[in-house]
Specification:
By secondary structure, this protein is an alpha/beta fold. The protein has 18 helices and 16 strands. The protein has an 8-stranded mixed beta sheet, sandwiched between helices. It has a 4-stranded antiparallel beta sheet with strand order 13-14-15-16, covered by helices on one side. A hairpin with a 3-residue loop joins strand 14 and strand 15. Helix 6 packs parallel to helix 13 and helix 9 packs parallel to helix 11. Bound molecules: calcium ion.
C-alpha cells in the first residue's frame, strides 16, 4: 500500500457525496441542531432565520440504534480508511454522512470477549468472558436489557457466540440467555458462510440457503418493517459471520478482485503458512458482499422513513492479521488485530463528513449508546460515554485504550496472555513477565520497528508501563485472571459442556483427563 494509513485515510471519505444540511436548518429551534446549523456555516442557508420557522414538533423521538457487526473485519479493509483496493461504497457513504472514528479498537480482540464487552460496557475480566466459548453469565446487565427496560424493542440477528458450550446446532432458548433481546434470529457460531442454519423461538433449525449475510440482512429488514406496526424505538444488532475465515466469498464478488493487483501492506509477509493474495482477495470480496447487504439495510431505513432518527453504528469484534507481521487471525496487539471500523451515522443530530481521531474502544460503545438515547448508564459500566464526540461537541476522548488477552491460543499463534495500552501515538504491550512490543505509530505506522528493548525508548516505555499498570488497577484487572492451560485449543471449551469460567473447565478437566487431552 502506498499511502500510510495516517496520510491516506481522510481522502476517500471527503470525496463522497456532500451531506444535506436542510434538516439542520429546518430544525433550528432544537438547541443542538441550531448549534450544528450555526457551526456548519452553510452559505446557502445564511438567509434563513429561525423566527420564520414553524413551531417545533413535539419532543424529538428517541433514536433507534442499528448496530452492525461483521466478524473479523479490520479497519484497514475499508475504502474510507484509505484502502486502495477494497470496494466498500455503502460503508464509505455512511461514513461520509456521519462521523468516522478512525481510532476504534477492540479491547479484547477475539470473538466472545469482544462481544461480551460490547453488550455489557465492561472489560472482559469484569463480565467474566475471558476466553472464547464461555457462557456470559445471565446475571450480567446488558445494554439490550437496559434499552428494553427503557421501552425499546430489541432484536438480535446473526452470530451470537455468548452462550458457551457446543457451538452447533446453536439454539439459544428465549429467556435470560438471550440477554435482553426480544426478537431473535440467530445461531451460536458456525463459521459457515453458505448454506447454514439459524433459530428463532423454537429448537427447530431454519435453513439458510446461499450466503448467510444475505439471510441475516433479510431478517434485519423483517425486524425493521415491524416498526410499521410497533412504534417503540428499537435497538437492532446484526452480527454477520463474514468476512471471518474461511476466506470464501460468493463467486460473483470474488471474480471482481485480482489477487495480483492488490497493494499489500508493507508489513505483510509472504509464506505458505499465512494468508496470501488469494485469501486477501477473498477477504475483500466478502467485505464487498457484506457492504452490499449494508446498502440494502440503508435503503430500507430510507424507504421506511427511519434514517433520520436511527443511529447506524458499524464496527467489528476484532480485525485479522492476514499475514501482516507474519501472523494470522487476531488476539495480537498489532493494528491489524485491534483496530476495527468505527462508523456512526445519525442524521438528526450528527453533522456528516466528519472524521475524528478520538480514541474509541468497544467498552465505550454501550455507555455512548445509552447517553445518545437519554438513558443513564449503570455505575458498573466501565467504558466512557463518548456521545459528545459523536455529536461533534468535542474531540476529546479517553487518553488511551486498554487491551487484554488472558491466555494462549496456540493454533492461532498466540502463546500467552498479555495486556496493552494504545495512545494516540504509541502501542505498548507486555506479557506478565516482560515487555513485548512498543511502537511509535507516528513514525512507524506499520509497526516495523519494535522499540520494546530499545534503550533510547526507555523513558517512553516506562511512562506507558505506568499508565498500563494504572489501567489494570483502575479496572480491577490482575495477571491472576490469566490462564495457561490451552483451553481454547482443540475446542476444549465448546466440545464437551458449558462453562462460565476457565476455573470450571479446569476442575472438569481434572475429572476428565482423557477428554481434556483428546485431539
Ligand atoms: Ca470473531
Amino acid at each position: 500500500m502506498h499511502g500510510a494509513l495516517a496520510a491516506a485515510s481522510s481522502l476517500p471519505c471527503l470525496l463522497m457525496e456532500p451531506v444535506d444540511n436542510r434538516e439542520a436548518a429546518a430544525d433550528c429551534t432544537n438547541g443542538w441542531s441550531r448549534r450544528r446549523f450555526l457551526s456548519a456555516g452553510v452559505g446557502a442557508l445564511a438567509g434563513l432565520s429561525c423566527s420564520q420557522e414553524p413551531p417545533p414538533a413535539a419532543e424529538p423521538k428517541r433514536p433507534n440504534i442499528l448496530f452492525l457487526l461483521p466478524d473479523q473485519m479490520r479497519a484497514q479493509a475499508l475504502g474510507c480508511m484509505g484502502n486502495p483496493d477494497v470496494r466498500t461504497p455503502h460503508l464509505d457513504r455512511l461514513a461520509s454522512q456521519g462521523v468516522l472514528f478512525r481510532n476504534t479498537f477492540a479491547n479484547s480482540p477475539v470473538c466472545c470477549p469482544a462481544r461480551a464487552t460490547l453488550l455489557t460496557g465492561k472489560y472482559a475480566h469484569t463480565n467474566g468472558m475471558v476466553a472464547n466459548d464461555l457462557r456470559l453469565r445471565e446475571s450480567e446487565t446488558t445494554v439490550a436489557e437496559l434499552l428494553r427496560d427503557a421501552g425499546y424493542r430489541t432484536g438480535f440477528v446473526g452470530k451470537w457466540h455468548l452462550d458457551g458450550g457446543k457451538r452447533l446446532p446453536g439454539y439459544v432458548p428465549p429467556g435470560p440467555r438471550r440477554q435482553g433481546f426480544e426478537f431473535w434470529a440467530a445461531n451460536e457460531c458456525s463459521h459457515q458462510h453458505f448454506d447454514t442454519q439459524y433459530f428463532r423461538d423454537s429448537d427447530q433449525p431454519v435453513p439458510i440457503e446461499g450466503f448467510e449475510a444475505e439471510t441475516w440482512t433479510n431478517l434485519g429488514i423483517e425486524f425493521l418493517r415491524q416498526t410499521q406496526s410497533d412504534d417503540r424505538p428499537f435497538f437492532l444488532t446484526i452480527q454477520m459471520g463474514p468476512p471471518h475465515d474461511p476466506y470464501i466469498a460468493p463467486e460473483e464478488y470474488r471474480s471482481t478482485y485480482d489477487p495480483q493487483a492488490l497493494a499489500m501492506r508493507p508489513n505483510w509477509k509472504e509464506s505458505p503458512e499465512l494468508p496470501g493474495r488469494d485469501d486477501i482477495a477473498s477477504y475483500y470480496a466478502m467485505i464487498t458482499a457484506v457492504d452490499d447487504q449494508i446498502g440494502r439495510l440503508m435503503a430500507t431505513l430510507d424507504e421506511l422513513g427511519l434514517a433520520e432518527d436511527t443511529i447506524v453504528w458499524v464496527s467489528s469484534d476484532h480485525g485479522d492479521m492476514m499475514g501482516s507481521q507474519g501472523m494470522r487471525l487476531k488476539r495480537k496487539p498489532w493494528e491489524e488485530s485491534i483496530r476495527v471500523p468505527g462508523i456512526v451515522r445519525y442524521p438528526r443530530k450528527v453533522l456528516g463528513a466528519r472524521t475524528t481521531d478520538a480514541l474509541l474502544s468497544h467498552v465505550d460503545f454501550a455507555p455512548t449508546w445509552l447517553a445518545l438515547c437519554g438513558i443513564e448508564a449503570p455505575q458498573a459500566m466501565q467504558g466512557t460515554d463518548l456521545s459528545a464526540v459523536v455529536l461533534g461537541q468535542t474531540e476529546q476522548g479517553p487518553d488511551s485504550a486498554f487491551f487484554q488477552i488472558f491466555g494462549p491460543y496456540h493454533a492461532g499463534g498466540a502463546v500467552a496472555g498479555w495486556r496493552g495500552i494504545r495512545t494516540a501515538r504509541h502501542m505498548y504491550a507486555r506479557y506478565e513477565k516482560e515487555p513485548w512490543v512498543l511502537y511509535d505509530l507516528q513514525e512507524d505506522p506499520y509497526e516495523l520497528n519494535n522499540l520494546a528493548a530499545d534503550p533510547a525508548a526507555a523513558p517512553v516505555r516506562e511512562e506507558l508501563e505506568q499508565r498500563l499498570a494504572d489501567w489494570m488497577e483502575r479496572t480491577g484487572d490482575s495477571w491472576s485472571f490469566n490462564w495457561t492451560h490451552p483451553v481454547e485449543d482443540n475446542g476444549r471449551l465448546y466440545k464437551h459442556e458449558t462453562f462460565y469460567t476457565v476455573e470450571e473447565y479446569l476442575a472438569w478437566a481434572k475429572q476428565n483427563p482423557r477428554l481434556d487431552q483428546a485431539p
